[in-house]
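Following up on my earlier thread - several people asked me to post the actual chain instead of describing it. Fair enough. Here it is, all 322 residues.
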Amino acid sequence: MKRLPIPDDVTGEEIDADVRQELLSLPKGLAEDVSRNLVMVARLIDEDPEGAYNYSRVALRLASRVAAVREAAGFAAYANQKYSEALAEFRAARRMTGNVDLWPVMADCERGLGRPEKALDMAGAPEVHKLDKAGQVEMRLVAAGARRDMDQLDAAIVTLQSPELASHSVQPWTARLRYAYADALLAAGREDEAREWFAKAVESDKDGSTDASDRLAELDGVEFVDALGEDEPEHGTTEAGTVREPEAPRADAGDVADAAEATTAASEVTDKDVTDDADVTDADAADADITDEDAVTDGHDGHDGPEHDGPEGAGEDEGTRG
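Reply from S.P.:
Thanks for posting it. Predicted structure:
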């Protein structure tokens, strides 16, 4: 088996204690080898997804019967938009543990495969009620993204309306939830409301997990101008900086990472703006269970993935694609 180089400072002790516990079922030398590869997956998954994927494949060949390894392989595949492969790995990990934490990211893989209806079915499944609050918010983000995939903008807006959106407390998911709501409002042509919610997203985005400040500046007519390069002629014209397209919210399943200092105040949500609780799916959406298969029919891998986060135990993600 071909091994990949691992820096000497990577000991394998960096991984989460729960993952180390899982690896106790392996011989000591093998467990250390697997853990070091998992650490490399976590180190590279944001900056070098392809590299992280390669390390995850090594870990998978070494210990495919360890749930944490299957989960890490799933997140690495997900980061590379290999949604069919990611879904198979997540299903395997869930089957081994019985845990529902991966449900939102599995639904987001269905979106990536061009099956938003399937993602909505999963949003209405009993498993959602077993998720913690963070998982339920992630599921709501995925469901709203599925609605937008189907050009159902009004339904996407209603899906995001919830007590979590209206809450004044800032949680790890708050910035992304507000951002998704603002983006849906803007897509629906409700620019004034969108500006208000982008401002609220900026207020709660403590670690710059979204580009809400750029979107807000764009709405306010602020242009970012690139300086001329040294080799460009003095008479050359500058270009406005590019504001990147919003990404669909990614499911924050397993271990996935959290949500610029407060810069803008925004008005409170009125009862008219946000309903007390909006169902994630339509009343006529049928509950559907995902079958536990290790392989699924491949859709397309060109789906724009959400910003992702690291595999559980190997260092943290929501999330969910956008």
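Confidence is low (pLDDT under 50) at residues 233-319. That should answer part of your original question.
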